[in-house]
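Good morning,

Attaching, inline, the backbone tokens for the sequence recovery test we're adding to the shared suite. The designed sequence is right after.
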């Protein structure tokens, strides 16, 4: 079983809750950041309230995680477009704190511009391996629906186990059939 080492999870208490529970069992230490009160508790886990749009607080929390737990090995992030600077700030701060390699699993919604995210990979230093997980929908030829939390978590876990650089959970086609 793969160990993801010292792990930071942003946005993992809602639809990614099952992924978070799975990941916690495969880490040496986990910090979970959320916008709402504590909703997950495990022995090797610290839960912190964090508004991802507060860049100073985000930098402070990443610095504290590194100070308390040492090098960061894995980041799982599902952050809405309301905090567009959060991911670049995370990347920059971790790169400033350490030279060790780490992996960023970036979960994005169906309408995210993945090509621009892929083309921005040059903004990630050699230490960061960027893995993109895009959420789609289910389509049976006549009707469509959004993915369930269970499907999202199962697809995210599968992506993390496979080490693919890019994963679509569900489908994005036909685009006009989106729910």
């Amino acid at each position: 079983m793969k160990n993801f080492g010292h792990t930071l999870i942003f946005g993992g208490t809602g639809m990614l809750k099952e992924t978070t529970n799975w990941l916690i069992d495969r880490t040496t230490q986990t910090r979970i950041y959320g916008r709402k009160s504590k909703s997950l508790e495990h022995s090797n886990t610290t839960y912190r309230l964090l508004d991802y749009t507060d860049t100073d607080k985000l930098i402070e929390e990443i610095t504290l995680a590194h100070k308390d737990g040492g090098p960061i090995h894995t980041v799982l992030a599902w952050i809405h477009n309301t905090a567009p600077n959060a991911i670049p700030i995370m990347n920059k701060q971790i790169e400033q704190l350490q030279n060790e390699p780490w992996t960023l699993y970036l979960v994005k919604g169906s309408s995210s511009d993945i090509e621009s995210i892929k083309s921005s990979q040059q903004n990630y230093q050699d230490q960061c391996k960027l893995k993109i997980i895009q959420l789609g929908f289910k389509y049976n030829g006549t009707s469509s629906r959004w993915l369930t939390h269970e499907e999202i978590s199962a697809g995210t876990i599968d992506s993390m186990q496979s080490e693919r650089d890019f994963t679509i959970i569900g489908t994005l086609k036909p685009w006009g059939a989106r729910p």
